[in-house]
Amino acid sequence: MSHAFAMGDYGFYVWSAVAVFFIVLLIDTLAPLARRRRNLRELRARLARQENRRRPGTPPSNESDA
Amino acid sequence: MANWVPLWLHRLGSPPVFYRFAGAVRPWALGLALVLGAVALYGGLFVAPADYQQGDAYRIIFIHVPSAWMSLFIYGAMAVAAFIGLVWRIKIAETVAMESAPVGAAFTFITLVTGSLWGKPMWGTWWTWDARLTSELVLLFIYLGVIGLYHSFEDRRQGARAASFLVLVGAVNVPIVHFSVNWWNTLHQGSTVRLLGPSHIEASMLWPLLTMMAATKLYYIASLFARARADLVASESGKGWVRDLLAGRTGNDPA
C-alpha cells in the first residue's frame, strides 16, 4: 500500500496538488457560510439599535450578540 | 417548451424564493460532489495505471484538468448571468454573476498551482511564459478584477453593473485560453478529451476524469448557492422576508 502512496518518485508533486485542491475548496466552502452568519448577526444588531432609538427606555440587552 | 419552465424560472427570480431554493439544493449538491470526488480520486490515484511516459506524475491530471475546465465553464456561466443582469436588470442574475467570480478564481488558482506542480517534474520548470499558461494567468487577473470592482462601489447594484461590463469585455479571453494550444506552438500539451471525435485517453483514465468533472460542477452549484445566500441576506436586509427570517417567522432556518 505504501508503494501506491509513493507515486513513483513523484509523491511530493501529486500529493501537493491534491492538498492544494482540498485546502482551497475547503476555504471556499467555509467562507460564505461564515459570511452569511455574520451578515445576519449584524442585521439583528442593527434592528435592535433602531428599536432602542424608537423606545429609549428599553435596556440595551438586545445588543448582546453583536 | 412546457409552460411551467418559464413560470418556474420567473418565480426563481424572486430573492426569497431563490434563497429557499438555494438552501434546499446546496447540501445535496455538496454531498454528491464529495461522493463523486472521492470516487474519482480513488479511481484516478489508485485504480488507473501509470502513464507509460510520465509515470505517476500524470495523476495530477485528475485535479488539474477538471479545475481548468471549471475555470472556463464558470466564466461562461458568469458571462451569461452578467448579460441577463445588464439587459433585464434581474437582481438574482447580478447576484449569480458576482458570486460566481470567487469560485471561478479559486478554480483558476488551483489550475495554475497544480499545473506548476506538474510542470516542475515533467518540463523541468515551475513556470514559463507560454500562451496557455499566460492566458490562464490573465483569466485569474480578470476574475480578481471583477471581484475588486464589485466591492469598490458603495452601492451594490451599481458595483454589480460595472463589474458585469468587465465580465463581458473579459469574455474575449475565454476562447484564447481554450484555443491557445492550437493557435500557438506551446509547451503545454493539446486537449486529451474531446467532445467531437475520439478522446486520446484510455477508458480507465477517462472515467475518473469525467467523474471529477461532474463533482466539480456540483461543487460549483453548492458554493455559488452558499455565496448567493450570504449576499442576499445583506443586499435584501431592508426587505420584509429577511426580517421574517431573522424573527424565525418562516421557520426555515434563522442564522
From TrEMBL, chain A:
Q: Which UniProt keywords apply?
A: Cell inner membrane, Cell membrane, Cytochrome c-type biogenesis, Membrane, Transmembrane, Transmembrane helix, Transport
**Where does the sequence pass through the membrane?**
12-34
- Membrane topology type: Single-pass membrane protein
Which compartments is it annotated to reside in? Cell inner membrane
Q: Where is this region: Disordered?
A: 47-66
Similarity annotation: Belongs to the CcmD/CycX/HelD family.
Q: What does this protein do?
A: Required for the export of heme to the periplasm for the biogenesis of c-type cytochromes.
- Protein name per UniProt: Heme exporter protein D
Automatic annotation (TrEMBL), chain B:
Q: How does it sit in the membrane?
A: Multi-pass membrane protein
* Lineage per the UniProt record: Bacteria, Pseudomonadati, Pseudomonadota, Gammaproteobacteria, Lysobacterales
- Ranges annotated as spanning the membrane: 28-48, 68-88, 100-119, 131-150, 162-184, 204-222
Whether Transmembrane counts among this entry's keywords is yes
The protein here is known as Heme exporter protein C
InterPro entries, A to Z: Cyt_c_assembly, Cyt_c_biogenesis_CcmC, Cyt_c_biogenesis_CcsA/CcmC
Gene field: ccmC
The record's subcellular locations are: Cell inner membrane; Membrane
- Job description of the protein: Required for the export of heme to the periplasm for the biogenesis of c-type cytochromes.
